[in-house]
Amino acid sequence: MNLHSLALAIPLLPLAAAAIVGLVRPIGRRGGLAATISIAAAAASLGCALLLLSHTAERFVLKLPWLPVGGRTLAEVGLRFDGISAPMLVVVGTVALMVQIYSVGYLSDEASGPRGRYFTWQSLFLFAMQGFVLSPNLLQLFSFYELIGLCSYLLIGYYWEKPSAGRAAVKAFWITKLGDVGFLIGLLVCWTQYKSFDLAAIEHAMTAGPAQANTWLLPALLFCGVASKSAQFPLHVWLPDAMEGPTPVSALLHAATMVAAGVYLLVSTSFLFAASPVMGEVVMYVGAFTAVFAALQGCVQNDIKRVLAYSTCSQLGLMVAAIGAGSVAAGYFHLVTHAFFKSLLFLAAGSAIHAVHTNDLREMGGLGRGMRWTGVFFGVGMLALAGIPPLSGFFSKELILASLEEHPVALVLGLATTIMTPYYMGRAFLLAFSGKPRSAAAEHPHESGWLMRGPMLLLCSLALIMGVFLWSFADTIHEPVHLEVTSIGLLGIALALAGLGLAWVFHGPRKTVIDALPKSLLEAARSSGVDALYVFGWRHVVFVFAATVSFFDRYIVDGLMNLIGWAGDRAGDALRRVQTGRAQDYVLALFLGLLALVAWGVWGG
Amino acid sequence: MNEIQFCLLLAVALFSIGIYGLLTRRNAIGILLSIELMANAVNINLVAFSRVHGGAAGQVFALFAIALTVAEVAIGLGLVILMARTRKSINVDEARDLHG
Amino acid sequence: MQPLLIDLSIAALALLVFVADLLMPSEEKRGLGHLASAGLVLILLLTFVLDMQGDAFGGAYVLDPLALWFKRVFLLAGALAALIALDPAEQAFARRQGEYYLLLLLSLLGMSILSSARELLLIVVSFELMSLPLYVLTAFTKSSKLSGEGALKFYLVGATSLAITLFGLSLVFGATGTTMLPEIAANAGAIRSPLLVLGVLTTLAGLAFKIGAVPFHMWVPDTYEGAATPFVGFLAVAPKAAGFALLVRLYLVAFAPLSVRFQPALLALCVLTLVVGNVLALTQTNIKRLLAYSGIAQIGYMMVGLLAQTGEGVGMLLFYLAAYLFTNVGAFAVVCAVGAASGSDDIRAYRGLSRRNPALALAMLVFLLSLGGIPFVAGFWAKMGIFIAAWHAGLHWLVLLGAGLAVVGVYYYLRIARSLYLDDPEEGAQPITIGAPLRLALIVCGTAVVLIGIWPRPWFDTALDAAKSFLH
After folding, report:
1. Which pLDDT score is estimated for C375?
2. Domain boundaries, given as residue ranges, for chain B
3. Which of A30, A43, C161, C272 has its CA 20 to 30 A from that of C60?
4. Does residue C457 belong to any structural domain of this protein?
5. Is C39 part of a structural domain of the chain?
6. Chain B: nearest CA to A393, how far in angstroms?
7. What is the 3-state secondary structure (H, E, C) of chain C?
8. Position C39 pLDDT exceeds 90
9. C280 touches chain A (CB under 8 A)
10. A591 contacts in B (CB within 8 Å)?
11. Given a cut of 90, is residue B42 above it in pLDDT?
12. What CATH code is assigned to B3-97?
């Protein structure tokens, strides 16, 4: 089997599985069989990707003319296997496979028919995602981008009996679609400027051809698409709502793949951003701002999945910021490590939710006793996300902080995120897994079966050791990566530990640090006012601030998005009144139109 | 004022009367008559222009237009009869179940 | 003789159906539907086999690649319409089936001639031959109050706009002294008569009715809602295509020297059509009205291609029409099946369709995605092509507007798509079974939409060639 057919098999195997499960009704109706076929295809696809990865030295691009216009080929369809696409193929394949296996356990209570449909969409999604990763040109990227959005729409809406899930699905789709309008216009601009959609051809034209007038325009438009899919402010509002979907779907879409698609697009087109310093800075600041903004909101969420959603938003912000600052490798490597530990966190959260049947942290507590495995998995994910050495998150976070070194404002925002991330993760961990059970369901939680634990175990080990792969990763993408311990790096570690400490202080088993301190010290602190200042600072300044940000997001940014929809509906209603139903009113409209047309033509033009 | 301008004015007047009738009549037959007036305004135009340019094109056009209008009105009458049957009325205002 | 062959074949088929209708006993009249649709498919195949290009009647009639493309669109639309109507026609008006197919064929003949006409009188006659049967077909379910009302509104607005068109054309004739389009094109630049400008603009108003551009659109939703569903799919596609054929011949060739005059008016119509169509579709609860308003919006996109005033724009418009044909006829075929099963055209009837008939739901999903312009189905390339052509022609802000409004479109299309898959069926809803003819039509439309979506190349090639031969 040659390399080309291997690459072709990566997206086509899941597509075949989707077709079989979706179209052959006897299979679709039997959930177990559907799952088997889907998982087998995903595994085979991952196998192909791994085989290919062992041949990374060989880069190739396959092309086929897709759409000729006016004698030239407007678009090609093809496969691009190179250092950029190789790591992503493996990441997507691995997480998708793990999530599909996990889903079998997670959805075992569900009826058989819907499960068949679920696996159809899972396979279709995998096809769309791998097709996206392998795209050699912007038009194909865009096409698969849309398909990803559609699959996510169907997967989020899986729980149709919950109206909120349906609403969330629609919202997710049309907000990401809104960003795609920018992407679409970007395609047109790209065609006008470079007469090609092919990434390699554009890069060539940029270096070899005459300088373009508006180098910022194309990256700005592409960034609209990136911001909507990768949930950057202010187009991030769909992500928390999308948590209404099944948890394995969140693990796949909202941790590792769909939201990563935006960042991947950014990586693939980074040469465009590099050519425009202005856009690079805009991207960096949007990313850094999103990182802090979302992290702040993560601090005050009570729904465990929403904590993770805001955390994803925030981490994506960091990746975007790093790429904006010019360090593609840092952003991309964080994308890879984040994919593993965040999907692990989602799956572990799903396992907890499965046991207690609620997302609410206030109704959990003490789960660590009955669910040791899940607790350990969530803990490892937490530490990796917090960036504690030597877990994988540490390496990528250090790279990102290093990339921001020359931009003080962005660096401060990044460091602020670094302390908040461990805080909210620690808070979620402590609220869910330690302390006393706070609801009847949390009294006797049952550990999940091996079908769910197995995938988590694998992701957990990847989250632990992924950092080691940094150097081989650097080889793959052919970009030098320096990891040296600088003062900022040390500060990062210190802040991460401080964040965890803060979480312990406020949400640990002993209610506050005050109880833990020796009485005499407490007296001294009290008399000097340090304690009051401390408590006041955290309780009244930071929390109020975080709550305000959360309020702003929920009612102002989100409200604005809803307002657009509402305005459309009102306008529709108003216009409907014109359509009176009287035939002569229609004729009147005809004559008025005629008069306007003649007047416009005679005097207006 | 020369001949052709006079003809055009007449045609426009006739067309406008047709429009007025079309918008104000409620009786379906009256509306059909108004449409007929508008169509005949066109015929006056065509014949007048035919005289200006010479040749028979305009006159042939007018003859065809008359035939077409007849066919059209025949169908219109059919629809009015259908309305009279289903609604027991030929007041066009009463046919407004479809709207919005 | 050769160039007329297609139209003569359609006329012969119509006569055959007419005579057979007189001779056949009423219980066998279903065969007429088979005859009509098989005959149309045969003629369609003929257009691919024979090379018939050329002109006739001293240039008044021409069969160029443009006309050929339109004729193929009409033939396909007609064949599909006859196929979809087979079962409902037998149930609703078994004795009058023959008339139904006869009228359909006559209207088709009118469209077909119209797409070839290069002379004003021929244009007017074929325009009427197309329109008159449509009024009757709209009112064909005689017992239904709504059907009669829809037809009456269609007729009143249609007859008025015909008078307006005729008035406009008479002024054009008066100013140029000729009825031949090539001669008008040659003279129009030199003539400074205000009559010509007035005529050109007045004619535009009349044609805007035919394609359903805002504000000449108000008959569209009422007529669609009132008319029998199997017929609406045809009504929503074929006459609109014919309207565009005429617009291209008149406004991009014959009146082209006057484009400074009518371009702003056309632009205003286009913007209004895009905005009003999309906004009004947002709040509809009846699927036929929703598709009517969304169809108006689709017409707006096609007008963008017309506004580009380039060969590329026309080519993309032709491609759009083909994609729209399969998509819209298919969507109305689904509406037909659901309407027949549940007796309602309310959007609520589509809840949980995936559990009542998964294939039907999948087909509807494909059509909705295509209407929304999502990649990998035909509609995406259609919109993309139009945008590219308009962008090249410098209509940047119009593309922005169109792309923005496409999001609104996706919103209301996906509202239905969500209902199909994510809502529970209404109480007591039974599985839906569909007859063989409808299934065949759905398979043809669905396959075509997906195939064009995956491999649009041959379609783009042919469409652009047809436009290129016509505009430099």
Report:
1. 84
2. 3-97
3. C161
4. yes
5. no
6. 57
7. CHHHHHHHHHHHHHHHHHHHHHHCCHHHCHHHHHHHHHHHHHHHHHHHHCCCCEEEHHHCEEECHHHHHHHHHHHHHHHHHHHHHHHHHHHHCHHHHHHHHHHHHHHHHHHHHHHHECEHHHHHHHHHHHHHHHHHHHCCCCCCHHHHHHHHHHHHHHHHHHHHHHHHHHHHHHHHCCCEHHHHHHHHCCCCCHHHHHHHHHHHHHHHHHHCCCCCCCHHHHHHHHCCHHHHHHHHHHHHHHHHHHHHHHHHHHCHHHHHHHHHHHHHHHHHHHHHHHHHHHCCCEHHHHHHHHHHHHHHHHHHHHHCCCHHHHHHHHHHHHHHHHHHHHHHHHHHHHHHHHCCCEHHHHCCHHHHCHHHHHHHHHHHHHHHCCCCCHHHHHHHHHHHHHHHCCCHHHHHHHHHHHHHHHHHHHHHHHHHHHCCCCCCCCCCCCCHHHHHHHHHHHHHHHHHHHCCHHHHHHHHHHHHCCCC
8. yes
9. yes
10. 19, 23
11. yes
12. 1.10.287.3510
